[in-house]
Amino acid sequence: MVVQNFVVDLNKALVFQVGHLGGAYEEWVHQPIVSNEGPRFFENEILEVCPLTTDETTKPSLASPREFLTRTVWWAIPVIWLPVVCWFIHNSVQMGLSCPHLALLVVLGIFVWTLLEYSLHRFLFHIKTKTYWGNTLHYLLHGCHHKHPMDGLRLVFPPAATAILLMPFWNLVKLMATPSTAPALFGGGLLGYVMYDCTHYYLHHGQPKTEVPRNLKKYHLNHHFRIQDKGFGITSSLWDKVFGTLPPKMDAKSM
Fold first, then answer.
1. Is residue 207 classed as helix, strand or coil in its secondary structure?
2. Suppose 92 and one of 33, 97, 165, 182 were both cysteines; which one would form an S-S bond, judging by CB atoms 3.0 to 4.6 Å apart?
3. What does pTM read for this prediction?
4. Quick check: 148 and 38 in contact, CB under 8 A?
5. Torsion over CA of 16, 156, 105 and 180, rounded to 10 degrees?
6. Do residues 110 and 205 touch, judged by C-beta distance below 8 A?
7. What is the dihedral of CA 197, 201, 203, 207, to 10 degrees?
8. Cβ(57)–Cβ(172) below 8 Å
9. Ordered alpha helix ranges (H), the chain
């Protein structure tokens, strides 16, 4: 199914084309196209549904439930998941967990998420593939974001996919924690995810005015446009420092 010297037609649905690139996929996907207009993924209209928008790109005014399959407005993440975070934390409160203990577990959950964020980004999202289905799955998972980094509707993780992935993580937390502490710990991790996805969107589309978010934006865009195999942290560079994946220091001109 890999085609020698295959050329992707950007005017057609991309998902089932990229697999034909074979070993050339790795180079192709890391040559970003800077445009707020995202590519078409599927010929199927149910999967390739567009929300009603004010400018057809990054300012959705109404989201169709079907768009959660492939396209997601950024504000859907806090709207959907923050109530779930509160529900999990409330469960621990109902089981008698004290406020200091509760706060500690939530912070621990956020901290664990930062390691999971780094690990997923480095070892799964940047896995090297060259088979047809390997390329296709990688493009759906993360390659599309590197190829079209400014596509605002395919930047945060679709809620339907998140809901499916949450189940094994919740079962894992229940195995590792007590019945009263597991909900707070899991709620903290989920809160960390919400912070991550909102931060990620802001780093691409926001205009930070203060030094810390400005530096974080430069750090992340350096990962996209300069050195894609370094700088895997999104919300911070902590784990890049720990595991030695900090990018070489950017000079003043590139900053």
1. coil
2. 97
3. 0.87
4. yes
5. -60
6. no
7. -140
8. no
9. 25-29, 76-94, 99-119, 132-138, 144-147, 159-176, 182-205, 211-225, 238-243
